[in-house]
């Protein structure tokens, strides 16, 4: 059958509030045309992020009740450690309050001015945490990713030739680690193939540099490998994930994505000396190594989520639902980053709004138009977020896990098609106020006259 159904039923509901277009116009003005500054209560369907926004299962809520809140040696930690070791094979499992805390600890030990960290594409916090140590974050996306319309199966891949060339030129003295982000969030939620990971592993090893995964969306990546890469159709998502992790020396992980939790992160490593340094830093700012800034109940939710996210019915529905949104708007003329990603659909705003130049932020302008029209919130991934480094001007519609139903998705499709019909009325934006770092979170705009 073709109908996508959610492989769960709903036990607890949360009302969402309709507003009028006039109300939303006033709210936008008040928020300086930055959707990050709109109160969540004023949003109807929130596709700002898939991070920390998952609905938890009965299994997770039940596990939370047995959360062991001991300061040291919490049983909940050992349960999580066992799950993570079984999944990833990494020897050291360090909990953190979210992914960026793991990044900060890792990079503040390994990075300093003059060093370079390559990645298929750094996420914004990853880049910021590297750059705040004085090191340089370099994106090496594969060639296919340059064309948003190309339907290649693994557009998240790292450019292996460029990686080899960079390592040959700079050597292990200047490159403390190589990172690969699965799926490639900045590059459109696109997967990385096992073949690409294997080769990146070999190249890094040959140059004596450790390879790390930014593993936020490892389960979605594993599903794409099963669907698209020859030889893995009979593997379980878990076996594929285990294979992915086996090619890396460690990982950073945000449990707010593919652990179906509302908070949490992990820093994993095989290197015992490094893990000891990491633990020392952890104690300084996050907490004792058996809780790392989280409550015992959060550790439980993550441990259960890591199992649930690899369920085949869940992953099949998850990827199908995102693809449904992508296909239904793309097949009616809205240019999206092809093919649809795992956690999000990215509208190519520069292509859709050809009358708005890059310096007037087409992605942010589209975010405002979609909110004003239908109360839907997406996020710009383009020149506001990355400045001159931006390769595309995108509006990301990230789908929270297990939260919205098929009829919500149909509403989003209809709204986008209506906005697309009136696209010529959308005006660009100019920035009138901005902070020094990560400006997209708090800058204010005004519409261009
Ligand atoms: N790495 C990637 C690839 C991410 O997508 C994120 C977060 C992080 C690291 C940081 O994790 O939020 O737990 O500190 N991405 C969210 C997003 C915020 O909306 O894409 P965190």
Short description:
By secondary structure, the protein is of the alpha/beta class.
Characteristics:
449 residues, Aspartate Aminotransferase, domain 1, Aspartate Aminotransferase, domain 2, five-stranded mixed β-sheet, three-stranded antiparallel β-sheet, 16 helices, globular, binds ligand F0G
Please provide a written account of the structure.
The protein has 16 helices and 14 strands. It has 2 domains: 167 residues, Aspartate Aminotransferase, domain 1; 251 residues, Type I PLP-dependent aspartate aminotransferase-like (Major domain) (Aspartate Aminotransferase, domain 2, 3-Layer(aba) Sandwich). The protein is α/β, with parallel strands linked by helices. The model has no long low-confidence stretch (mean pLDDT 97). Helix 2 runs antiparallel to helix 11, helix 8 crosses helix 12 and helix 12 packs parallel to helix 16. It has a 5-stranded mixed beta sheet, with helices on both faces. Strands 9-12-11 form a 3-stranded antiparallel beta sheet. A two-stranded parallel sheet has the order 1-10.
What are the secondary-structure elements, in order, as H or E?
A: HEHHEHEHEHEHEHHEEHHHEHHEEHEHEE
- Number of helical runs? 16
Low-confidence runs of at least 5 consecutive residues? none
End-to-end CA span: 50 Å
């Amino acid at each position: 059958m073709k109908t996508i159904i959610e492989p769960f039923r709903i036990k607890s509901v949360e009302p969402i509030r309709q507003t009028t277009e006039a109300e939303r116009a006033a709210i936008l003005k008040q928020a300086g045309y930055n959707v990050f500054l709109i109160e969540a209560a004023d949003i109807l369907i929130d596709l700002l992020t898939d991070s920390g926004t998952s609905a938890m299962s009965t299994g997770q809520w039940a596990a939370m009740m047995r959360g062991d809140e001991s300061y040291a040696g919490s049983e909940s930690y050992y349960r999580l450690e066992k799950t993570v070791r079984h999944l990833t094979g990494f020897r050291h499992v360090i909990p953190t309050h979210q992914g960026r805390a793991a990044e900060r600890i890792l990079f503040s030990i390994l990075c300093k001015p003059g060093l370079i960290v390559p990645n298929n594409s750094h996420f914004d916090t990853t880049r910021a945490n590297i750059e705040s140590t004085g090191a340089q974050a370099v994106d090496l996306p594969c060639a296919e990713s340059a064309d948003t319309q190309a339907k290649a199966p693994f557009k998240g891949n790292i450019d292996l030739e460029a990686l080899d060339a960079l390592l040959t030129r700079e050597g292990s003295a200047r490159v403390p680690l190589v990172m690969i982000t699965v799926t490639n969030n900045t590059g459109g939620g696109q997967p990385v193939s096992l073949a690409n990971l294997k080769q990146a592993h070999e190249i890094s090893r040959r140059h004596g540099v450790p390879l790390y995964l930014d593993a936020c969306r490892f389960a979605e990546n594993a599903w794409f490998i099963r669907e698209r890469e020859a030889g893995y159709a009979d593997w379980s998502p878990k076996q594929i994930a285990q294979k992915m992790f086996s090619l890396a020396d460690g990982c950073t992980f945000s449990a707010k994505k593919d652990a179906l939790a509302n908070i949490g992160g992990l820093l994993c490593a095989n290197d015992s000396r490094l893990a000891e340094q990491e633990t020392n830093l952890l104690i300084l700012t996050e907490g004792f190594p058996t809780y790392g800034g989280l409550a015992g109940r959060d550790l439980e939710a993550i441990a259960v989520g890591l199992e649930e996210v690899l369920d085949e019915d869940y992953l099949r529905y998850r990827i199908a639902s995102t693809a449904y949104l992508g296909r239904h708007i793309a097949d009616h003329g809205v240019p999206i980053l092809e093919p649809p990603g795992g956690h999000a659909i990215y509208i190519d705003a520069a292509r859709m709004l050809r009358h708005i130049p890059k310096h007037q932020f087409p992605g942010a302008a589209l975010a405002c138009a979609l909110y004003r029209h239908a109360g839907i919130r997406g996020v710009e991934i383009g020149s506001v977020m990355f400045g001159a480094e931006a390769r595309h001007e995108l509006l990301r519609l990230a789908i929270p896990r297990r939260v919205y139903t098929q009829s919500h998705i149909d509403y989003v499709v209809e709204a986008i098609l209506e906005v697309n019909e009136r696209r010529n009325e959308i005006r660009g934006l100019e920035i009138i106020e901005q902070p020094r770092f990560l400006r997209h979170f708090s800058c204010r705009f005004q519409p261009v006259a």
